Amino acid sequence: TKLVYMFDEGKRDMKETLGGKGANLAEMTRIGLPVPFGFTISTQACNTYYDSNRKITGELKEQVLSSLKQLEETTGKKLGDPGHPLLVSVRSGAVFSMPGMMDTVLNLGMNDDTVEAMAKLTNNARFAYDSYRRFIQMFSDVVLEVDVYFFEQHLEEVRERKGYTSDPEMTAEDWKEVITGYKNIVKKHTKRTFPEDPKEQLFLAIQSVFDSWNNQRAIIYRRLNKIPGHLGTAVNIQSMVFGNMGDDSGTGVAFTRDPSTGESILYGEYLINAQGEDVVAGIRTPQPIQTLQNDMPDVFQQFIDTCKRLESHYGDMQDIEFTVERGNLFILQTRNGKRTAQAAIRMAVEMEREGIISKTEALLRVDPDQLNQLLHQRIDDSYEFTRLVKGLPASPGAATGHVVFDSDDAEALSQEGKKVILVRPETTPDDIHGIVSAEAIVTSRGGMTSHAAVVARGMGKACICGCDGLKIDLKNKQFRVGDTVVNYLDRITIDGGTGEIMLGDIPMIAPELSEEFQTLLQWADEKRTLGVRTNADTPEDAKKALEFGAGGIGLCRTEHMFMDATRIPIVRDMILAENLDERMAALEKLLPMQQGDFTEIFEAMNGHPVTVRLLDPPLHEFLPDKEELIVDVTKLQITNPSSHELKEKEQLLKKVRQLDEFNPMLGHRGCRLGMVYPEIYMMQAKAIFYAAADLLNKGLVMEPEVMIPLVGHVNELKAMRQVVEEAADQIEQETGKKINYTVGTMIEIPRAALTADEIATEADFFSFGTNDLTQTTFGFSRDDAESKFLQHYIEQNTLPENPFMVLDQEGVGKLVETGVKLGRETKPSLKTGICGEHGGEKSSIEFCFEKGLDYVSCSPYRVPLARLAAAQATI
Ligand code: ADP
Ligand code: MG
Ligand code: MG
Questions:
Q1: Is residue 769 part of an annotated ligand binding site?
Q2: Which UniProt keywords apply (predicted)?
Q3: Do the Cβ atoms of 179 and 129 come closer than 8 Å?
Q4: Which of 251, 281, 459, 820 minimizes the number of CB atoms within 10 Å of its CB?
Q5: CATH T-level topology, domain 250-339
Q6: What is the pLDDT of residues 278-313, one digit of tens each?
Q7: What residues contact 221, with CB distance under 8 A and at least 6 apart?
Q8: Does the Cβ of 71 fall within 6 Å of ligand 1?
C-alpha cells in the first residue's frame, strides 16, 4: 500500500490521507505556488504504526527512503551530504488542526559535518552554527524530551560570560561553544550521545510525531472537540528554507482578512532575519505586515498576489505562513482561518458580494452556535480579570452590579436607579419583583430548569444557577468563596454564558445586529421552509422576538402571569378556596388581569399567530415554601398564639400539605388541573377570547391558538376542548364578534405521541413539548438528572449529549416522528411544531425539518440562530 506521497502527488481533497497541512501543501504545489518541496507520510501509516506495536514497519521505512531520494534528486542536495546537505523540517498534521500534537522540528539533518558545509555554502559561519544549535535544542526538546530550560540556562551562562546582552552579538565561535555544552546536556539527560546520523534523526522525529497522536494533551483535545481517535496524524517532511539568512530574509504569518472584525484587509506580522516560531514565540516584537511594503516591496507585492489567489482558490479567508529567503518568497502553510462570529458573518456576506462564494455557501459559513455570542452583552475578552467562582451557565449574557440578597432590596435599589445582581440560595415566585429589578440572578442551589433559570431565560436576563462554591449568609448579608467575602452592595460581574463570577466591574461589549448580519438572515429566510416562532410570555419578549425575525409565538406560558407579585395573593385565594363560589370570585378578579396581558401580547405580535398554553404547573408552586411556613407557624405559636396571622398561616400550611405531592413532575398539573377545576381553564379561555375580541374592535386580526398541556389520552383533550369552545361561544355572543380560533395540544407524554391518530381527532395542531417529553421518555426528572447523574453519563459516553440540550433523535425523536405521522394520518392538514428548548438547537432544528414539522419555537434570543439553522437544514 502507498503510505507516502510526494507534494506533487496530492491535492486539497485528500485531507483524510494527508492531513490538513499536507493536503494544502500538495494543493499549493499543484497550482504552482512557491512551496519548498517535500513529502507526506499518510495517516494510514500512523495507524499501521500503532497496529505494529509502535514500530515503523519495513514497508514504511522503504517508502520514506525512496521518497527521500526523490526529494534529494529534485533539490540537488542530500541528507547528511558534507558537500550539499539537505535540511528538512518534520511537521505533524492531523485531519483536523490540533494543538497539543508534536511541535515542528526544523533544520533536521544538521551535524558536525553538515554544519561546516552550510557555513561554506552560505559563506556565513555564524548563521550555520546558530542554526545547528537551534536544531539540537529543538530536537532534544521535542523528540528526546529534554527540557528547554537546561539549554536556555546554558546559553545565558555563555552570553553572560562573554559580556553580551543579546544573541546577535554571538560569533560563530561562541555558538560552537554553546553547541558543545548542549551536547553535554543531552548526554547527561538521555544517557546517550546526540544522534548525528541524519537518517536516524529523521526516523526518530517521525516516530515522535506518531507518538504525539496519543499524548495526554492530544487525547484531551480530541475528547473536548469530539474528534475520533482512529484518524491518526500525517507527517510532513519538507526541505528547509531560511528566513534567518540576513536582512533580505524573514518569516511571518498573515490572515487574508481581519479575523476579529472580518474587514477585508491583510492582517498579519513578520520578523526580518528570523526563523520559524520566532514570530509567535514573542522573543522579538514582530512588525505589522503592511511595513513589509517598505522593507521588501517586490516580495510584498508577490505576497499580496499570492494571498488573493489562495483566498479565491479556497473561497475562504486563509491563514498563511510564509518565509522569505534572500528575497525569495516561500509559502509554508495555508488553511481556512479561525474567526469570531462577527467576522464570520461579515466575511460571508462580503465574499458573496465579491462573487467569491454563492449565497448558499455564505449561509453555510456561519455556525449558528456562534451567533449566541453576538446577541447578548458580553465580557470584553481583551481585558485581564480573575474568576472568583463558577456555577451553571443558566442564561447567557453578562452583567455588572451591586450584590443584594433579597428581592425587596433589589426592587428598592433599582428604583433608585442602581444596577443590582440578586444573589439567593434559590428563587421562588415571591422573588419575581426582585428578578425583574435585577440585572442578573445568581443562585447557589438549583439546576438549569430551576425557577431562577427558567424565569431569567424567559426575560433574556443573565443567570447563574447551582453555584455551590458560593456560601451565602443571608443574616449577615454576605457571601463567601473560600477566603473571599463579598458584602451587600459590593460590585461583581457575572457571565451567564460561562457561569463565571468575577469581582468588580469588567468592561462589556454591547450586542450588535450589524447590517451584514441582517442581510445573512434575510438570505436564510429566502432559503428556509421551516417556520421559526418564539417562546414569549410578555409583550417585551414578543417585541424583541419580532425584531429578531420570529414569525409568531409558539408558546406563550400563562403561569408567569399568575406569578406577578400583585397577583399572587389573588392566585392564593383561588387555590385556598373552600368551594366553587369562593374560587369563582378569585377567578373573576384574575380574568381582567389575564385579559390585559393577552391584549398587550396580541397587539405586540401585530397579526402574527400566537399559541397560548393554559395553566401547566402544579398549584403548590404558587404557595410559599413548606419548610419556611412551618418555621413561621412555630414561631407565631410561641410569640403570638391568638393572632389572625397565625390562623392564616396555619390555613395556608394545611393547604400546602394537602397539595404536597410525591412527584410533582408527574402529579396534578397540566390538563389534569383543568379536568378537576375546569373553571380555571374556562377563565383563561375567556380572557383569551375577550382579548381577541378587543383586537377585532380595534380593527386588528388575531386568531388565537389555544393549547392544552400534558394530554395523554384523547378524552382529556376532548373535555378541555369543550371548555374552550364553551368559552368562545359565550364571548362571541356577549361581544357579537366572530372569533376564529384553533384548539390543539402539547405532545409531551409518550402515550400522546403513540396515540396521536386518536388525539388528532380533537386537535387542530400539535406542539411537541420536548422538555417534558424528554423527561417522560427517559423517565428522568431533569433537575435530578442534571445535578446527580447526567454528567457522569456523558463523561462515560453512556449518552452522547445532554438530551435536554440536544434532542435524542433515536428515542424522543422517534416519538416526535410517530406523533407527526399518526397525527397527519387522521388530519393531513394538522399543523405541527416544537416548543421545547430543542427548538433553538441546530441539530434538533435540522431533525424537525427532516421530519416535516411546520415550525420550531425558541426563546427570543435564539430566533436568529434558528433562522440560520433552518436555512442550513434545507441545504
Ligand atoms: P504549526 O502547525 O504549529 O504551525 P508548522 O509545522 O506549521 O507548525 O511549523 C511552524 C513553523 O515552522 C512554520 O510556520 C514555519 O515558519 C517553520 N517551518 C516549518 N517548515 C519549514 C521549512 N521547511 N522551512 C522553513 N521554515 C519552516
Ligand atoms: Mg503552522
Ligand atoms: Mg410541559
A1: yes
A2: ATP-binding, Kinase, Magnesium, Metal-binding, Nucleotide-binding, Pyruvate, Transferase
A3: yes
A4: 281
A5: D-amino Acid Aminotransferase; Chain A, domain 1 (3.30.470)
A6: 765 555 677 889 999 999 999 999 999 999 999 999
A7: 98, 99, 100, 227
A8: no
Question: Given the C-alpha cell 450589524, which residue does it identify?
Answer: 514
Find the catalytic residue in 451, 560, 620, 838. 451
pLDDT classification of 479: cutoffs 50, 70, 90: very high
From the CA of 91, which ligand is nearest? 1
Band of residue 99 on the pLDDT scale cut at 50, 70, 90: low
DSSP character for 164? Answer: -
Is the domain spanning 4-239 CATH 3.30.1490.20? The answer is yes
How many CB atoms are closer than 10 A to CB 676? 10
pLDDT averaged over the chain?
Answer: 93
* Weakest-pLDDT range from 258-272, 573-587, 685-699: 258-272
Look at the block and give the residue holding cell 441582517.
518
Please give the distance, rounded to the nearest whole angstrom, from the Cα atom of residue 814 to the centre of ligand 2.
Answer: 45
The protein residues having their C-beta less than 5 angstroms from ligand 2 (an ion) are 321, 333
Average pLDDT over residues 247-252: 93
- 669: alpha, beta or left? (left if phi > 0; alpha if psi -120 to 50): beta
Nearest CA to ligand 1 atom 11: 276
Say how far apart CA 159 and CA 182 lie, in whole Å: 14
| pLDDT, position 847 | 98
Query: How high is the ipTM of this complex?
Result: 0.96
Asked whether the whole model's pTM tops 0.90, one would answer: no
Q: Which of 463, 835, 848, 858 is catalytic?
A: 835
Q: Tell whether domain 377-509 is in CATH 3.50.30.10.
A: yes
What is the domain partition of the chain in residue ranges?
A: 4-239, 250-339, 377-509, 528-617+672-874, 619-660
Burial per residue of 329-346, b for 16 or more beta-carbon CB atoms within 10 angstroms, e otherwise: bbbbbbbbbebbbbbbbb
Provide the greatest CA pair distance for the chain. Answer: 109
Return the closest-CA partner of residue 250 out of 227, 228, 273.
Answer: 273
Pocket test for ligand 1, best of 91, 135, 206 (most atoms within 8 A of CB): 91
What burial class does residue 456 get, using C-beta atoms within 10 Å of its C-beta: 0-12 exposed, 13-18 middle, 19+ buried?
buried
- Higher-pLDDT residue of 413 and 100 is 413
Does an H or E element contain 635, and which?
A: helix 626-639
What is the pLDDT, as a whole number, of residue 117? 94
User: Ligand 1 in contact with 430 (CB < 6 A)?
Assistant: no
The answer to whether the CB of 236 falls within 8 A of the CB of 93 is yes
Count of CB atoms situated within 10 Å of the CB of 366: 25
Identify the band that residue 360 occupies on the pLDDT scale cut at 50, 70 and 90.
very high
Ligand 1 pocket, 91 CB below 6 A?
yes
Which residue's entry shows cell 410570555?
A: 537
Q: Is 671 a catalytic residue?
A: no
Least confident piece of the model among 335-349, 671-685, 742-756: 335-349
The answer, yes or no, to whether any atom of ligand 1 lies below 6 A from the CB of 755, is: no
Is 75 known to sit in a ligand binding site?
A: no
Q: What is the pLDDT of residues 132-176, one digit of tens each?
A: 999 999 999 999 999 989 999 999 999 999 999 888 889 999 999
560 counts as catalytic: no
Check residue 489 and give its pLDDT: 95
What span, in angstroms and rounded, lies between the C-alpha atoms of 222 and 26? Answer: 25
Task: Quickly state the pLDDT bin for 624 (edges 50, 70, 90).
Answer: confident
Number of Cβ within a 10 Å radius of residue 634: 10
Q: Are the C-beta atoms of residues 833 and 856 closer than 8 Å to each other?
A: yes
d(CA 743, CA 674): 14
pLDDT per residue over 765-791, tens digit each?
999 999 999 999 999 998 889 878 998
DSSP per-residue codes, 495-526: ETTTTEEEES---EE-----HHHHHHHHHHHH
CATH of domain 528-617+672-874: 3.20.20.60
Q: What is the C-alpha separation between 358 and 366, in angstroms, rounded?
A: 13
Question: Is there a binding annotation on residue 771?
Answer: yes
Judge contact between 838 and 491, C-beta under 8 A. no
